[in-house]
Specification:
Elements: H1 8-41, H2 44-53, H3 62-75, H4 79-92, H5 99-117, H6 125-154, H7 158-168, E1 173-176, H8 183-191, H9 197-203, E2 219-222
Antiparallel strand pairs: 1-2
Helix pairs in contact: 1-2, 2-3, 3-4, 4-5, 8-9
Length: 223
């Protein structure tokens, strides 16, 4: 039995579309796999580029948005971009396995961002650049304050510093920095929240040269 000519083009179109879908899916899977590897190596910028290349705004991309949000949150201390990807996860997978966790993370990051900016919370794409610049300025101020605190501590008499060291030793917790660690991710490990990174920085202000680049193998005091 011959296929009517009027139906044949639709059959061909269906085969082509199905074939394209099979081609796209493995490519996206490979991009995500490569991004996971780069993230594990600490190359977060490259990992973000690969994750974003795999996005196509279908429900299957919800987990990619989740991974991007955690990168921005834990590794880059960027709650603004983390919020964007957390909300994309909820839009694509409102009843997903991580939905409740993501909702809690959204609330936390909204509070953190609102506090840091001392103003109304705005997370739309049109305001992203402005808010990011304000956030960077705040971080610079924090770094300057940390530098001043280190300078003041250097002026403290040696006996006082020795007394502080001896009184801090009993029962103190320590942590050895691993590849890919940030102050935020270490805070999450010990306090189940990335917001207490400043306490760790203050406790190690004499040994941390750059809060954004911790030395692998460095031992930190966990207050």
């Amino acid at each position: 039995m011959k296929t009517p000519k009027i139906i044949l083009p639709f059959l061909i179109y269906g085969v082509v579309v199905a074939g394209c879908d099979r081609m796209i899916t493995p490519r996206n899977a490979q991009l995500v796999k490569d991004a996971d590897a780069k993230s594990a190596q600490g190359d977060f910028s490259r990992a973000i580029n690969l994750y974003e290349a795999a996005l196509d705004d279908t429900p299957r991309c919800a987990d990619i948005h989740y991974k991007l949000a955690l990168l921005y949150d834990d590794k880059l201390n960027d709650p603004l971009n983390a919020l964007h990807h957390f909300k994309r996860y909820l839009a694509l997978s409102p009843n997903g396995a991580r939905a409740n966790e993501v909702k809690n993370l959204v609330k936390r990051d909204e509070i953190a961002l609102a506090t840091s900016l001392s103003g109304d919370l705005v997370v739309t794409r049109t305001e992203a650049a402005r808010l990011r610049n304000e956030n960077l300025n705040l971080r610079k101020e924090l770094e300057e304050r940390a530098s001043k605190m280190r300078a003041l501590s250097d002026k403290t008499p040696a006996q006082d510093r020795q007394g502080e060291r001896s009184s801090a030793k009993p029962g103190r917790r320590t942590y050895v920095v691993q590849a890919g660690d940030t102050l935020a991710s270490i805070s999450r490990k010990f306090y189940h929240s990335s917001k207490r990174w400043k306490e760790i920085l203050d406790a190690n202000k004499n040994s941390i040269d750059n809060p954004k680049e911790l030395r692998v193998g460095q031992t930190l005091i966990i207050p």
